[in-house]
Amino acid sequence: MKAPCGSTGTLDATEMNQILSSPNYPAPPGANLRCRWLIDGNSTAVQIRFQHLSIGSADSAQCTNDRLEIQDIISASQNQEASGDLILNGDGASVVTLDQNQRIIIQRELGQRLTFCGTRLPHDVISSGGALAVTLITGNSAASSGGFQLQYSLATCNRSYEGVEGRIVSPRWPGFFRSNDYCQMTIESPANTTISLYFNLFRLMNSLNCSVSSLEIRDGGTSSDRLLGNLCGSALPNSIFSSSNRLWLQFRPSLLPQRGYDLTFTSTQQGPGCGGAVFNTRGSVTSPGFPGNVSRTTDCRWELSVPIGMIIKIDFPMFQFGPSDDCMNNYVEISDIRASPDGTLGEAWRARYCGNDRPSTYVGSSNGATLRYVTSTNNTGSGWRAVFQGVTSIHGNQ
């Protein structure tokens, strides 16, 4: 008799893309399942890219029914005496492998858990340690889920990124890169869009003209396209905006290991730097052209989200609209993203900032919020930068 979950256990990630699908995919996986897989990178970070997701619906902000959970595994201790069956304790603090005599040979400490449901494709998931645990949970209705399909591989840096949004980290993240971790990357978003790069962390060796170590970014798909930035040092770079749907990146490591970089990208049809969707535990977005004035009539919209089970908090470390107090044509608005009883997502207006305002910390009521930026040619300020993060308890403005 075929096992309801199909083949489960440990999957060894390599530099080649491999496929993990739900049982019976593309048919529904079945009811009352709890299927678990461990994707092991052997101390190298693992990356997951979703190809299809149709699990329950997003009618619950917590995905309490059918859901897919991805657990970050941040450390491991191992006894090499024997090998045996894998036991995943998805609700606890560790993943344990036992030998035939029930002795623990591997114990892995668990980090952050991401939960997904509905049909919207999440951006790539990158482990903080060397493994990810994937758990599919279905309820009583066998037809309530269409299942999932994803690619998994080692998070190597020589690669092409395709999609509307994503995350890029330096080699061996969140550890230190090595002196031979030279790599090239391309980003391609859908046709008729532009790409925005937002930096979450940046630590490279500083040097004159960034000659020792750098992250080079060009406005197109090749090394001969227009240079947008040659970055080094520890200061967080300004956001970078393309003029087309392609970017080319090259990372040159230093002999002395450093932390590297963590950035997110999103795409938009509204013009360079104007809006997009960004998902992360912590991230940032800026006004177009920041820190400068675009001097044109603009209406941009960003959709920000943090993992399900958290609520979103937003701060503005920089907010400068210039001397104008025109709050009808120059402002930033924040709205909550909420699920209604019928399962549709709606927005609830929460705050507007303009002129000489100094926005206080904003805490939402869900894991998502939208930022709307409206400005005119009368705006002479240098713009704004918003930093968002997921928190597990409510502290701040309501």
TrEMBL record:
<dbReference type="InterPro" id="IPR035914">
    <property type="entry name" value="Sperma_CUB_dom_sf"/>
</dbReference>
<dbReference type="InterPro" id="IPR000859">
    <property type="entry name" value="CUB_dom"/>
</dbReference>
<feature type="domain" description="CUB">
    <location>
        <begin position="274"/>
        <end position="391"/>
    </location>
</feature>
<keyword id="KW-1015">Disulfide bond</keyword>
<feature type="domain" description="CUB">
    <location>
        <begin position="157"/>
        <end position="268"/>
    </location>
</feature>
<keyword id="KW-0677">Repeat</keyword>
<protein>
    <submittedName>
        <fullName>Cubilin</fullName>
    </submittedName>
</protein>
<dbReference type="Pfam" id="PF00431">
    <property type="entry name" value="CUB"/>
</dbReference>
<feature type="domain" description="CUB">
    <location>
        <begin position="5"/>
        <end position="155"/>
    </location>
</feature>
